[in-house]
């Protein structure tokens, strides 16, 4: 049971406040904000209580999404609800930010009215909700620009029109009604990698958590068939045949997915509802089919001037045609490091010393596969001792690998039936993110 | 609807539309109307809701729309709160269970929560329900999974096997939730996994890598994950886990770093050498927060594992310069006081502090300083006398704080009573090995935490078992001595009981063991761990004696001052014990375990040693060294017949006299075979003991102690 739901900006402004049960004081929001900002580091912030009111909150889009409840409620339910609420708001408003929530407050109140009645969650399915939600989303971005980008010069088929811009999927689902012909469907394969590489270069741990997410802007779509790799297998027991089998350890599906063709042809059938939904989740541990995307060869020494020299060679082992973007290596350095001088192998990199997080942050905007970058960092550390070397590392890498899946999962085809009358567009996108990519030194 | 406006004056106009709403054709109207009655009831709690309405709500449980059904449950729960909520009987339960698939995840979790109150009437019904719910247990949606497990645990509360099976089944989805994209969900899952681990410590052992911390994860998740990692340590993964934890010790976030250091300390209770190596390495960093955490951790470790004290004493040199915070300095003072005789610089460190005591602000440090100086005075009077005098003078004459002053006065008067009395008071509480029980916490029954599963409690309470941080010395830990007493109670009883319950062929065994018990009361035997036997020495001695034994066992050797015993003990559940808890239990009675095979592995072996000491018998050689092996091959023990004998021989090289006593208790072996249930056939544990010099009484007493420990462990496991 949920007593109140409110959304606060990171500065504590009240954006949305909805009281379902009544009886709570008006100051409850400020109490929450005081508590959450006064937390010391070792207190877990997710659940806090004030007298017998329990606050459960999540952070998304830089906002606090808070529900108040009683001690006996299920944390899983409340957290899942808040996550779902945030996802719905994102679907309806296009994006999640303080601004979009502020501009669409009427829409969000309307949503909350339909989702929750008297503190009880009624439905969060966008199929049901679309019948009730009338308010149009207000977006700050003019749509004309976005449309232009899809039209080639003099109407020619350009490369541009074959690739959906990254902003294409961040628009409100409802605008599709007005836009008429603009019925699109996005199928995203998103994987998150968790990797630990030992100081000897050996792989200590590799986990991939993946999901197939469908974002549907079609007003009516009766059935969709998603074909996965035919050699896709689940579990460790299955023997691998010839060729590169795609294997995952565990796999779970959205309850709306029908699996009657899955065993024979690896086809998922579902009727997507408007908005975003996760169709399939899977995970794979320890046994990645492809090489790790990055390897690091560090050399760390002290020079006789009392400086710390870190020579870093970072290798990207992706296939030559692909590239990693937004690569960022965080290298923890000894406490008391004062200044940094750097020699980077190419101009499109940058590095800086962040004293408050005690780390050198090395950023590479684009890193092509099969190449290697190197950097020499000279750190001025006044109180450098041999023990301070222990403080260097482990290096954390964050990156994005567009058009690549670590498990090798691919979507063979995407069919809609019946064939949509108007022009419809189907997009398939792949991306692998680093959840935590740690290289010990 | 006007109910949202919460205007009591409108209530009378509302009832009619609500009644009509219950029968509306549109499901969404019925949904609102059903909850409307709950709202109405809460607006006017005094007025009775018409019984007809309640009946109608009950009948709407059969509404075709699943949301209406769930709303009816919710409304009835609120309206009938005084009567204990909706009446859950068999037809309602079965109806709800059958329609569970139609509901969305919110409805499912709600229904499952309400059903927790239902008690199946027969075992068949129970199993029907459980098999119906099985698919929900592995649901990819954490709310449904958690609610189902809650229901499983409450329904099968008196069938522990089922609860355990459910826990095992649910570990997959819980682990998946631990890797969820949402941090809050991860946190909830990790907290609940901690609950599970209380009952099934080895549950997630193979998945320990899942609890390695991501570098971008918030500190609160990292901290919980480290707590889980500590629980999952075993012989195979200890190196990996320590390696990983070592990486966190230099984390930018000081809380994470300190949590990692104390996690290493906790692992150090079972793997002290490796952990101390890491901890001493960290001292080299000379950073105040790390040094402070390390010193505190060492203090806690030394209290539980006194055998680490030598390494700790060596490492402490020079720490006082880096320590800044109160807790760290308190810990250092405590260590200096207790182990002052072994730390050469201790008096000088104290002297600096005593000279600066005027400017010391912290009460805790002053108190700790007093105690430490007093203790040091007892072992190194010459160096400390002068500074103790100055300290006492300052504290009594100038100190304004009453606590410090009283403490100083107490010590001053104590010194007047003589040095022996002082020693008694100050050194009375040496570290107590029984604290070791706290290390290998025995698995707790599921019922202990089942009630708070899937509530906010596990998330909001602080670290589950972390001790409070703001204390000076481990002596101040208010630990409950009760478990200790419990243990010894169950010890003797369970053993005797077990023996008597055996078949009559076991009677001899029982007689002998009661005799042993009696004699052990007459001539108390004490066990001690020092001098320590290193694994290499152990191996050497063991192999040597084993060779002797196999050579001469058949020839009936006597007059050799060495005893060799093999015996079977029936304590099936010991195999399920985690190495930590076994080690802890053994340490409780001063038996040191040297090596283990991992849990559940066959053949299962444990090697152990101890020294026996008999204080009163001056004539007999009063200390002996006992080496032992526990062995479980997993097959029914095939040996039969008694070979009991002693044989004469000269022990070769050392010129010692050995006596080999081979005693195979046919009684025990028989008992194993007699147990016709078949299931416990193979669960005898062979105890092989080797004593030098020979002292039969001591050996038998030791065996009794060992058997009681094993029996206690297995009875706890049951």
UniProtKB/TrEMBL annotation, chain A:
InterPro entries in UniProt: Adaptor_comp_med_subunit, AP2_Mu_C_sf, AP_mu_sigma_su, Clathrin_mu, Longin-like_dom_sf, MHD
Keywords: Coated pit, Endosome, Golgi apparatus, Membrane, Protein transport, Transport
Boundaries of every MHD domain copy: 182-440
Membrane topology: Peripheral membrane protein
Gene Ontology biological process: intracellular protein transport; vesicle-mediated transport
One cellular-component annotation, GO: clathrin-coated pit
Domain of life (superkingdom): Eukaryota
Predominant place of localization: other
Cellular compartment(s): Early endosome; Golgi apparatus, trans-Golgi network membrane; Membrane, Coated pit
Sequence similarity: Belongs to the adaptor complexes medium subunit family.
Function, as annotated: Component of the adaptor protein complex 4 (AP-4). Adaptor protein complexes are vesicle coat components involved both in vesicle formation and cargo selection. They control the vesicular transport of proteins in different trafficking pathways. AP-4 forms a non clathrin-associated coat on vesicles departing the trans-Golgi network (TGN) and may be involved in the targeting of proteins from the trans-Golgi network (TGN) to the endosomal-lysosomal system.
Name of the molecule in the record: AP-4 complex subunit mu-1
Organism: Haplochromis burtoni (Burton's mouthbrooder)
Automatic annotation (TrEMBL), chain B:
Keyword Protein transport: yes
GO CC annotation terms, alphabetical: clathrin adaptor complex; endomembrane system
UniProt superkingdom: Eukaryota
Main location: membrane
Domain Beta-adaptin appendage C-terminal subdomain: residue ranges: 525-711
Gene3D superfamilies reported for this sequence: Leucine-rich Repeat Variant (1.25.10.10), TATA-Binding Protein (3.30.310.10)
Record-linked SMART domains: B2-adapt-app_C
Keyword entries, A-Z: Membrane, Protein transport, Transport
Protein topology in the membrane: Peripheral membrane protein
Example GO biological process: vesicle-mediated transport
Pfam families the UniProt entry points to: Adaptin_N
Compartment list: Endomembrane system
InterPro entries: AP_beta (IPR026739), ARM-like (IPR011989), ARM-type_fold (IPR016024), B-adaptin_app_sub_C (IPR015151), Clathrin/coatomer_adapt-like_N (IPR002553), TBP_dom_sf (IPR012295)
The family this protein is said to belong to: Belongs to the adaptor complexes large subunit family.
Record-given protein name: Adaptor related protein complex 4 subunit beta 1
């Amino acid at each position: 049971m949920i007593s109140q739901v409110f959304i606060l900006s990171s500065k504590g402004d009240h954006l949305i406040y909805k009281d379902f049960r009544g009886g709570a004081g008006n100051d409850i929001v400020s109490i929450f904000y005081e508590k959450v900002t006064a937390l010391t580091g070792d207190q877990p912030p997710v659940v806090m209580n004030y007298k017998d009111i329990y606050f459960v909150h999540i952070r998304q889009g830089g906002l606090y999404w808070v529900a108040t409840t009683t001690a006996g409620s299920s944390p899983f339910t409340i957290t899942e609800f808040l996550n779902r609420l945030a996802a719905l708001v994102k679907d309806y408003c296009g994006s999640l930010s303080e601004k979009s929530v502020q501009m669409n407050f009427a829409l969000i109140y309307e949503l909350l009215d339909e989702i929750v009645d008297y503190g009880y969650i009624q439905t969060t399915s966008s199929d049901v909700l679309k019948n009730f939600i009338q308010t149009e989303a207000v977006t700050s971005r003019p749509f004309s620009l976005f449309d232009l980008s899809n039209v080639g010069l003099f109407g020619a088929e350009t490369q541009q029109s074959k690739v959906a811009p990254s902003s294409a999927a961040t628009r409100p689902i409802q605008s599709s009604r007005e836009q008429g012909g603009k019925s699109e469907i996005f199928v995203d394969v998103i994987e998150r990698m968790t990797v630990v590489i030992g100081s000897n270069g050996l792989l200590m741990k590799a986990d991939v958590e993946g999901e197939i997410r469908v974002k549907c802007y079609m007003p009516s779509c009766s059935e969709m068939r998603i074909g996965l790799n035919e050699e896709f297998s689940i579990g460790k027991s299955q023997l691998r045949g010839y060729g590169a089998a795609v294997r995952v350890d565990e796999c779970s599906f959205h309850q709306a997915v029908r699996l009657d063709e899955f065993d024979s042809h690896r086809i998922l059938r579902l009727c997507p509802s408007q908005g975003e939904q996760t169709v399939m989740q899977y995970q794979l541990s320890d046994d990645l089919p492809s090489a790790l995307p990055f390897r690091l060869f560090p050399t760390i020494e002290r020079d006789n001037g009392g400086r710390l020299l870190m020579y870093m060679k970072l290798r990207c082992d992706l296939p030559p045609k692909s590239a990693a973007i937004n690569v960022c290596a965080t290298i923890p350095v000894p406490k008391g490091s004062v200044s940094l001088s750097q020699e980077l192998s190419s101009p499109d990199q940058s590095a800086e010393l962040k004293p408050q997080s005690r780390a050198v942050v090395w950023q590479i905007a684009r890193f092509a596969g099969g190449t290697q970058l190197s950097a020499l960092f000279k750190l001025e550390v006044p109180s450098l001792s041999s023990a301070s070397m222990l403080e260097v590392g482990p290096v954390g890498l964050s990156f994005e690998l567009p058009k690549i899946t670590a498990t090798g999962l691919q979507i063979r085809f995407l069919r809609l039936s019946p064939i949509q009358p108007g022009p419809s567009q189907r997009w398939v996108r792949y991306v692998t993110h680093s959840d935590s990519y740690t290289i010990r030194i | 609807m006007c109910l949202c406006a919460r205007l009591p004056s409108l209530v009378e106009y509302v009832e009619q539309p609500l009644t009509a709403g219950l029968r509306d054709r549109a499901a969404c109207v019925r949904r609102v109307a059903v909850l409307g009655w709950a709202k109405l009831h809460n607006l006017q709690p005094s007025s009775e809701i018409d019984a007809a309405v309640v009946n109608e709500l009950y009948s709407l449980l059969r509404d075709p729309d699943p949301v209406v059904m769930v709303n009816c449950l919710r409304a009835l729960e609120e309206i009938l709160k005084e009567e204990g909520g909706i009446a859950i009987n068999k037809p309602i339960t079965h109806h709800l269970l059958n329609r569970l698939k139609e509901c969305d995840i919110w409805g499912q979790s709600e229904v499952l929560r309400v059903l927790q109150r239902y008690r199946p009437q027969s075992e068949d019904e129970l199993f029907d329900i459980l098999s119906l719910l099985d698919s929900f247990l592995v649901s990819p949606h954490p709310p449904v999974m958690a609610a189902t497990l809650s229901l499983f645990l409450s329904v099968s509360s008196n069938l522990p096997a089922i609860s355990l099976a459910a826990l095992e089944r649910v570990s997959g989805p819980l682990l998946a939730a631990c890797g969820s994209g949402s941090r809050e969900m991860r946190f909830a899952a990790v907290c609940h996994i901690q609950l599970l681990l209380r009952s099934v410590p080895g549950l997630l052992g193979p998945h320990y890598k899942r609890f390695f911390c991501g570098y971008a994860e918030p500190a609160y998740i990292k901290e919980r994950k480290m707590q889980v990692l500590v629980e999952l340590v075993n012989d195979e993964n200890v190196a990996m886990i320590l390696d990983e934890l070592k990486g966190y010790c230099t984390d930018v976030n000081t809380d994470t770093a300190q949590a990692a250091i104390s996690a290493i300390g906790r692992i150090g209770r079972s793997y002290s050498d490796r952990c101390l190596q890491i901890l001493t390495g960290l001292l080299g960093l000379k950073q105040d927060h790390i040094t402070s955490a390390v010193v505190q951790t060492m203090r806690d470790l030394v209290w539980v594992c006194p055998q680490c004290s030598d390494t700790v004493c060596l490492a402490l040199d020079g720490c006082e310069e880096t320590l800044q915070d109160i807790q760290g300095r308190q810990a250092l003072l405590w260590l200096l006081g207790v182990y002052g005789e072994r730390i050469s610089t201790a008096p000088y460190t104290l002297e600096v502090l005593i000279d600066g005591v005027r400017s010391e602000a912290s009460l805790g440090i002053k108190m700790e300083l007093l105690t430490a100086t007093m203790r040091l005075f007892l072992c190194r009077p010459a160096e400390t006398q002068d500074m103790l005098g100055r300290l006492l003078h300052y504290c009594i004459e100038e100190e304004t704080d009453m606590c410090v002053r009283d403490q100083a006065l107490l010590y001053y008067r104590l010194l007047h009573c003589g040095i022996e009395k002082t020693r008694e008071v100050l050194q009375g509480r040496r570290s107590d090995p029984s604290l070791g029980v706290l290390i290998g916490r025995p698995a707790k029954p599921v019922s202990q935490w089942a009630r708070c599963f899937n509530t906010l409690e596990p998330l909001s309470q602080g670290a589950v078992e972390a001790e409070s941080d703001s204390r000076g010395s481990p002596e101040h830990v208010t630990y409950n001595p009760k478990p200790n007493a419990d243990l010894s109670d169950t010890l003797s009883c369970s053993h005797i009981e077990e023996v008597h319950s055996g078949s009559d062929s076991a009677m001899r065994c029982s007689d002998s063991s009661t005799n042993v018990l009696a004699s052990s009361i007459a001539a108390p035997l004490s066990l001690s761990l020092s001098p320590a036997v290193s694994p290499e020495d152990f191996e050497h001695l063991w192999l040597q004696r084993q060779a002797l034994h196999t050579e001469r066992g058949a020839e009936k050797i006597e007059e050799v001052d060495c005893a060799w015993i093999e015996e079977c003990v029936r304590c099936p559940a010991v195999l399920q014990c985690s190495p930590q808890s076994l080690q802890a239990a053994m340490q409780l009675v001063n038996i040191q375990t040297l090596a283990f095979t991992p849990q559940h592995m066959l053949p299962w072996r444990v090697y152990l040693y101890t020294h026996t000491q008999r204080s009163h018998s001056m004539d007999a050689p009063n200390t002996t060294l006992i080496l032992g092996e526990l062995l479980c091959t997993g097959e029914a023990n095939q040996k039969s017949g008694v070979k009991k004998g002693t044989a004469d021989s000269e022990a070769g090289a050392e010129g010692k006299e050995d006596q080999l006593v081979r005693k195979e208790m046919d009684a025990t072996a028989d008992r194993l075979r007699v147990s016709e249930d078949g299931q416990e056939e193979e669960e005898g544990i062979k105890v092989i003991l080797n004593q030098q010099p020979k002292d039969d009484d001591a050996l038998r007493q030791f065996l009794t102690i060992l058997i009681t420990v094993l029996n206690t462990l297995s009875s706890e496991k049951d």
